[in-house]
Design goal:
- By secondary structure, the chain is an alpha+beta fold.
- It has one domain: Glutaredoxin.
- 49% of the residues lie in helices and 22% in strands.
- It contains five helices and four strands.
- The chain has a four-stranded mixed beta sheet.
- β3 and β4 form a beta hairpin.
- α1 packs across α5.
- It starts with a strand and ends with a helix.
């Protein structure tokens, strides 16, 4: 599975998501991840809304295998529900 995180500088939940994805990648629980700084890339929340198909009020916005799953809380829940956290914690 490949994770893409759309975030911005100064966002603590973006940092949490980036760190979690990094731990998962190091543990081999995911194939990899990409962090996209929306400010540096010129991506707006409106651009993300078009991709996701619903209003975007916060970042990060996280995609797993090109499927939007939500923000950090939803990503953390997804990781736990799929047993990926155990792999990340043992590495």
């Amino acid at each position: 599975m490949f994770v893409v995180i759309f975030g911005r500088p100064g966002c603590p939940f973006c940092v949490f998501a980036h760190e979690l994805a990094g731990r998962l990648e190091s543990a081999g629980a995911i194939e990899g991840f990409r962090y996209v700084d929306i400010q540096a890339e010129g991506i707006t929340k409106a651009d993300l809304e078009k991709t996701i198909g619903k209003p975007v009020h916060t970042v990060p916005q996280i995609f797993v295998d090109q499927t939007p799953i939500g923000g950090y809380t939803e990503f953390d829940q997804y990781v736990r529900e799929h047993g990926l956290l155990a792999a990340a914690e043992t590495s």
